[in-house]
Amino acid sequence: MIPIPSSHPSLPETLYTSEQVREGEVLAALACHIDMYSLMLRAGQAVFDELLHRYPNVKHILICCGKGNNGGDGYVVGKLALEHNLAVTLWQVGSPQQLKGDAATARDAFVEAGGFISLSKIRFRVRWM
Fold this sequence. Notes:
Layout: E1 2-3, E2 14-15, H1 18-32, H2 36-54, E3 60-65, H3 69-83, E4 87-92, H4 101-112, E5 117-119
Parallel strand pairs: 3-4, 4-5
Antiparallel strand pairs: 1-2
Helix pairs in contact: 2-3, 3-4
């Protein structure tokens, strides 16, 4: 964990590594007696609910999906948005065909709901001090 200062009192002040997040997700699913895909669906629903709460007049959303299960969460949000008749632009970083497991299941559900995946041509370079 890396403590960071938060500019907003309701935001967490800790960053977690991807390994810590994966471990935490497993513990959360076990505590709720659900499988990992159900946890992903719940996470996507929570994000979508917050989106509608903060932006009740939203008509079009942009979702940027990564290569792992967080990308899967994005696909869940995208499917929910389509089901609520919102326009969705979804960018996938990397190949959508490389997604595995629950992320691939979420991708397939998004496409089956009428979603379209745009391949991001944006390249990011992160520089740590």
